[in-house]
Amino acid sequence: MQKDNYYDVGATHKLTPELQVGIDGYYKQVQDLIDEGQFGPALIFTPFNYKTGKIYGVELTSSYKHENFSLYGNFAYSVAMGRDIESAQFNFSAAELAYIANNNVHLDHDQTYTGSVGASYKVPDTDTLLTTDTTIGSGLRRGFANTESQAAYAATNVGIVQKVEAGWFGNLTARFDVLNILDQKYELRDGTGIGVGAPQFGERRAFFAGLSKQF
User: Fold this and answer.
1) Cα–Cα distance list, 164 to 10, 76, 151 (Å)
2) pLDDT tens digits, residue range 109-132?
3) How many domains does the chain have?
4) What's the CATH code of the domain at 12?
5) Domain residues for 183?
6) Do residues 8 and 25 touch, judged by C-beta distance below 8 A?
């Protein structure tokens, strides 16, 4: 059974009525750290344990709003490490087990740097909202015992939200979004690393439309 101690401290501050910034730091000590991996040709998620683990990082946030325009930006630094696999060892090679027994290794979902920025604008005298956001990552782990990392990537999305009057049915909200509008091709995983049995890619350009109503 996993046991952990978790410490978190943060603060937010309004620099002006329109601009707010924040910082949050965390540290987690873990005993019998539970992780999951995809092993073998079936690629079924299989749990296993590291004897010890530590997860820590810092997150910076900011937001700005002026009249019809709003903007936000976030940045995160994160480290997630484990040491000495103590269950389901049959899924690993002898060389990998020996290395992990004597070294702290990055967990497969560990991404060192992650950033996001976004903005929205409400068109004056209308019920139309325009949005955009971009996510940037330094890449997940790869290679022998997760000692390497994937290439950095970025994806930008845009959208439009429109309130629609539907008579007796009331007001509806229509939305249209384009994800990864620049159609950036990026690989999240390449099939190597601890418990990573198959390549995975980020979503290509995609179009979504929706209609919603609040009751």
Assistant:
1) 40, 37, 43
2) 999 999 999 999 999 999 999 999
3) 1
4) 2.40.170.20
5) 3-212
6) yes
